[in-house]
């Protein structure tokens, strides 16, 4: 039905006018982002080539030394591995749970609305609160969850303090904290779909399942891509829950890249430049993944 | 659209209405940042409030925050940081160039340099200038649960680490399915606690030497350190010590027999209602080792963000801290009347922090606290925890220690020998040597 | 759009009692499952809320004590207020959250719309540049950003707190996804009707994505509500303190006073929860005005 529209040739001047409009629309956000994000980022590139601590005036230019140093730092390499493992577990789980739940909860029935409110609760709680609460709930000896697990016959439910399991607890809590966001975004995307589309499909004779694949899914795809990409970016930058719940331990088993970077920047002396250099690696890595995903996303979307 | 514009306008108006003016007009405001959150911060807040109410020249605007380091590091270069801060004396080098000398405080106020214990005050001098006034000495002590000790048939808290292990074994035997009990409560990931024990085994600093003759990592071949590590590991392997990051809560829940901690735990334990005692930490052989300081020195320091006016006002606050009058009984949580004491004495005695201010030390109330008297080091004592004085990378060394202790206890070989410790520590010795090379090259 | 009406009675029409009973029975297992998940999810938060009514030793007692023998809430609450100026902090937080969210909605939706519905040169590069702003940890750009705000002269003011937070690649991306999901012939029809581009955006497109706009509002307010580091460094004066930083005072490095922390956290969550339940209503209201139904 849209074929005719698609093929219609627009006049050149009209295209130009649209282009100008687009720039005007983007301008406010772009200007703010350039001033308050891009400029500080460029500043950080400068910092990454300095050996410096708190005092900017005592900075000493060291070129790429900080970068080569990072590659030889076994703790940094270890933190990369932990971050990748975290992301590889968290993102797929988060997406599956988000999609299934939002499909179940999209309709505006009373029960669904109550459920959605409940599932959104962890989002509302601040990261500090969440970290402390979970630390207490999972506490090896006074935690209520470990108490229940012991009652259920689990022999060593000290998951938060065992090197092998602590990261999974962090994954669980992170999903618990954020899947409400995934659900609400997907639910609102499903609700954005105009009914006329379903009716048109129904008139064409499509059943419920066909409607899901031909109408719901394509309309929700952009939001799905959005979630996937932002979750990956967010997971690679995992910080707050780790910091408040495990502090990176036990035995560094939950020290993600940003936790390590933060520790170097703020708890160690003259490492601000070094910490920044490590975060540039993180930046390049995230950029690389994003460009790949962006290309795939653009191929699957028409605009 | 109109609604949106109206909303934006009303928000803008709201923004301009909100005044950011100082809380008290006419007073000089001293901005005071520190990281004293949690239990002891409450008492600090009450004391600062008391100071603000006691006079009408100076207003101390205190911010207690876990983001203390971030805030300071960000704000110092623009001179927008606090005028007054509380800082670990080891961090003085870190903020080099941004600290304002306090040397004139002895001319401007009634405070006298000779009233401070020289061992501590000297740590705050750099290039002939004084940068800090001792605020508290965060001493580590042994906390013990009197009821658990009695139930296990132990009359006196142990004075040796062997005794610690024996007591821990007996106390751990009290454990039931419903209520697990551990005789010993070491965190292992908590470098301050680890170090307080490691020191009492008689080790030297983790980094020895000085800036002139060079520094040296002191892990390999360090017999006392090896004994400490073997002792810690055996405690854990035998099940006398839990694998847990938050042992304070267990202590408060009555599940821990013995632990090492600082005065900041006291408030929590008082509130918990458990029957506990505090005494000096054991030593390896039970002999004195009094000259080992078991804690860090924290100082009042001023930053370059302070103007002459705010600096003078901050000096008044510091003067009050040592010579003013403390809280009434109903104002403090522990329901003891400290009103006859100075804030400094009250802080130190109620929280069990060693004091560097000699008039306080000489006061009968201070002398009545046996633990404080016991802990007071001699005038020639070494008063550092992790590394030799002047080491620039003290925090890096401290975090390496937490790394190897935790890793060793949880993942090291069972029934370890001295040689096991040596081969385990090789990697960490190399880490420390890398740091030395990096900072002193 | 009249056909919408034909679908509505399906909900309102009463099926025979037996059919309804069977339908209910069929749904029951799913309902129980959802309820079970909901309980698991809620457990730590219920534990937290119960903690607000306990004294500290009761929070830590083991085996766990579910309900406190006496209500300690008022005592805890008084203690919280002794240490922090809760009301003033709430006020600051509201100004920060509302002041950020309202312009953010407008600015980011506009940009997201342009990325979704227009074809223009440099679109991909520009969008990737937008995304790039999400890719570096905040802790790293914090110092340069602070210096910038300092030079502008906005430290310790709501301007400095709010304006750098308005534009966000995250919201631009989210809005872009919402607008992309809409059918393509909508704006062409509007153009034929003679609406200008801004008019199309405000009158036709924006009403169609009301659920997403509500989502942005809720999440943006929530982000500000829980934001820790930014307000702390940007507005370090205690008169500018926000709620999340007030809460952090109760959570020390080693010694946690759980009952106070839980009391403050529980109370500070309430406004957000009310807002969410309120916002959910608009999920439906938004559809009613735009003639769309879920």
Notable traits:
heterotrimer, A: 303 residues, mainly alpha, MetI-like fold, 2 domains, two-stranded antiparallel ribbon, 13 helices, 2 strands, 75% helix, flat, B: 441 residues, alpha+beta, D-Maltodextrin-Binding Protein, domain 2, 6-stranded mixed sheet, 4-stranded mixed sheet, 14 strands, 42% helix, 15% strand, globular
Q: Could you explain how this protein is built, in words?
A:
The complex is a heterotrimer of chains A (303), B (441) and C (294). Helix content of chain A is 75%, strand content 1%. With 303 residues, chain A is mainly α. In chain A, strand 1 and strand 2 form a beta hairpin. Chain A starts with a helix and ends with a helix. In chain B, helix 8 crosses helix 17. In chain B, 42% of the residues lie in helices and 15% in strands. Chain C has a single domain, classed as MetI-like (MetI-like fold, Orthogonal Bundle). The longest helix of chain C has 35 residues. Chains in contact: A-B, A-C, B-C. The interface between A and C is large, with 111 and 114 residues.
Gist?
The complex is a heterotrimer of chains A (303), B (441) and C (294). Chain A is mostly helical and 303 residues long.
CATH architecture of the largest domain in chain A: Orthogonal Bundle
What gyration radius of chain A follows from the Cα positions, in whole Å? Answer: 24 Å
| Radius of gyration of chain C, in angstroms, nearest whole number | 24 Å
- What oligomeric assembly is this protein in? heterotrimer
Considering DSSP H and I runs of 4 or more, what fraction of the residues of chain A is helical? over 70%
The number of distinct β-strands of chain A equals 2
Shape of chain C: flat
N-to-C terminal Cα separation of chain A, in Å?
Answer: 17 Å
By DSSP, the count of extended strands of chain C is: 0
The CATH topology annotation of the largest domain in chain A reads as MetI-like fold
- Report strand % of chain A: under 5%
* Shape label of chain A: flat
Mean pLDDT level of chain A: 86
**Strands side by side in the biggest sheet of chain A:** 1-2
How is the biggest beta sheet of chain C arranged?
A: none
Q: H/E series of chain C, N to C? A: HHHHHHHHHHHHHHHH
Number of helices of chain C: 16
